[in-house]
Amino acid sequence: MTAGFRGLLFWKILLGFWLTFLLMSQLLWLGFSLYGKHHEPPENQSTRRIVHLQMSSAGSVLKHGGLPALNAMLADWPASERRYITVEPVDAPVQERLRSIPELDSDELPEAVVAWVNGADGREYRLRYDVRRLLQESKKGRGPQRHFLNVPEPLLVMAGFGGLLFSFLLAWNLTRPMRLLRNGFDRIAKGDLSVRLFPQMRRRHDELSAMARDFDAMVERLSVLVRAREELLHDVSHELRSPLARLQLATGLARQTPASISQSLDRIDEEARRLDKMIGELLTLSRAGQEIMPGEHYFDLLGLLEAVVNDARYEAQIPGVDILLDTDMSADYTVKGDAGLIRSAVENVIRNALRFSAHGKQVKISLWQENGWLILTVSDRGPGVDPDKLSSIFDPFVRVNSPLSGKGYGLGLSIVRKVVLAHHGEVTAQNGRKGGLVLTMRLPHWVV
């Protein structure tokens, strides 16, 4: 046997169902054996009929034809049947006539059956049938009858083989997908994320095939996460290399040109601030990707939005951009989640709109309820985004080529998407009808 057959679960199922099958056949046989006398062995029923028929025939011939007629009839019988019947004259007067055979009505067959008959010649005769000898010779002809646990050997062989075959097929059918699943997890543990189980189990159409489909979905998700993590690490290393190179250049210039130390220190401070900002955004991005947020609680989204808008209006004075908030102040806007992450996401969206808005333009922020959702839209009048790049603006380190884009790292909208998804919502982006970009955030509305 192969290693797959040595699984403990396989043997448990195989032996468990096989023993159960044998036990049920044993109980059924015992039940039928104990249920009424009409379930007596077939050989007893046959013997009972043969004895009754031959004794009745012999008695009738002897009564109407006499002893010569009986001897003639017995001469026509086979020697194997003739030897069981004996006829003897009875000298003492006996009043009994030919009658039925009461000895055969009992549950067990007697050793012999005897009947007294008045012959045609007027004499009394005793007919005797050796039942014991008939049973012994019939059993000797059939050979020894072997039983095991009160079950005849043919039935035992059929039940054992049939139960073993059924149990084997059942155990194989149940443990095969488990072995595939185990091998799949083993390949995943070794770093192979190309394993798929559903193509091998699609024909089952049961819970195990559904489990294989979920397994493939899990592996696909792991593959996407690993690939995204590798891409993120590559992008982070690439983004960190530039400020680190400028830091090294500034320190080198400071050593070579003592007169430019002050200018070099300013450059070092600026690059350090950029590194600190990038690291902070990366930490926020990592925290937003967690499914369980320790700071989760209920808060008013409108109050949070008003605070962010007030800060944005203060910053919008320099570029001369007008920020408009459109919402129903009397409605309820309760959200469950991390208020800090939601604030960070809203700030990123609004600051992104400010960055792409020219002097004298307007940024419109709208908030309303709709079918159990809170809809927050931020629209600007900037240059917008190329339609073929709309699907990638939420990826890390993706920046739109525009003179108004500033010096960001392309992490803001990626943080927005992570935060919204962590709060079981969704975020989309589309170009406005009159130009600019419209970002829509949908968050579940909690009624406390």
Task: Please supply descriptive tags for the structure shown above.
448 residues, alpha+beta, 5-stranded mixed sheet, 3-stranded antiparallel sheet, 12 strands, 54% helix, disordered N terminus
Detailed description of the structure:
By secondary structure, the protein is an alpha+beta fold. It has eleven helices and twelve strands. Strands 7-9-10-12-11 form a five-stranded mixed β-sheet. A hairpin with a 2-residue loop joins strand 4 and strand 5 (151-152). Helix 7 packs antiparallel against helix 8 (261-288) and helix 10 runs antiparallel to helix 11. The longest helix is centred in the middle third of the chain and has 50 residues, at 207-256. It is rod-shaped and about 160 Å long.
Helix percentage range: 40-55%
Assembly type: single chain
Compute the separation of the termini in Å. 62 Å
Order of strands in the sheet with the most strands?
7-9-10-12-11
Put simply, the count of helices is: 11
In the predicted model, the low-confidence regions spanning at least 5 consecutive residues are 1-6, 94-103, 402-409
Secondary structural class? alpha+beta
Strand content: 15-25%
What is the chain-wise order of helices and strands? HHHEEEHEEHHHHEHEEHEEHEE
Say how many strands there are.
12
On the 0-100 scale, what is the average pLDDT? 76
